[in-house]
Description:
Layout: E1 3-9, H1 18-28, E2 36-42, E3 49-55, H2 59-63, H3 66-71, E4 79-83, E5 86-92, H4 96-106, E6 111-116, E7 119-125, H5 128-135, E8 144-150, E9 165-168, E10 171-179, H6 182-191, H7 201-214, H8 219-229, E11 232-239, E12 243-248, E13 257-260, E14 264-268, E15 284-286, E16 292-297, E17 300-306
Antiparallel strand pairs: 1-8, 1-14, 2-7, 2-8, 3-5, 3-6, 4-5, 9-10, 10-11, 11-12, 12-16, 13-14, 13-15, 16-17
Helix pairs in contact: 6-7, 7-8
Amino acid sequence: MCGIVGLFLKDQALESRLGSLLTDMLITMTDRGPDSAGIAIYGDGASGRTKLTIQSDTPADSFAGLVPALADHIQGPLNLSIRDTHAVLTLAEGASDAARAALKDLRPEIRVMGRGARIEIYKEVGLPRDVAARFDLATMSGTHGIGHTRMATESAVTTMGAHPFNTGEDQCLVHNGSLSNHNSLRRKLRRAGVHIETENDTEVGAAYLTWKMQNGATLGEALQSSLDDLDGFFTFVVGTKDGFGVVRDPIACKPAVMAETDRYVAFGSEYRALVNLPGIDTARVWEPEPATVYFWSNDGAPTTQGKAA
């Protein structure tokens, strides 16, 4: 049992409140996932720049002198912004692969949590309230974000085992449920060259979507294919550079509720995660249909796609 939250803002006036709204939603889901928590925030991106969110269990040592050390290996401007055990490394567009390779050699204890032009991912072991406070999540702004509270069932309670999982540029996934074919699919994806770091089934789900899109599928098509290729019970919320998507398996036994107003679209594992959102009393509230892909984007109209017969 885990808790998922998501918030996609239509009204720019709410962007400065994204972090605080998501933090409240996340903390409300504590009893669904007290082991660890995480959040992905899509904020401003600078033209020609990309970001790596990195993590270390010994940040004082790992982050000290990191920028000058990387400057010997990577061309272009570098900037490091530290938040507790995480830091956001901003670098020239196209330099993320070189940065990851350099980090592996220079500071092997550093782990990459996320990469992309706009995405930042913060996740750690602990109660959601404590994790949110460590990273000061309530002060963050952006256009949309997703979060997760975890109750571990199939892998260890670790930072790397916490959600969200990022396996593609500006793409991440949070998940409530269990995938029964993740071991065989992990082997298949690794043979196809997809990078998977953990034994967590959710990372396999994220990597599957990345793999499908690398082979020409849109996010909607990848989510649609997941209904046929992934075995188990699942509710997915996927973040992308421009929006977020939702899909539930055909049985849809994992709880989910959505709300939409002219200012936002919100997702929660339970309605109580949404009750403090502005205007929730007049929102359209519904339960997402089984085997149906929903997607909202900053660059287009909302999309709903039913499962093909």
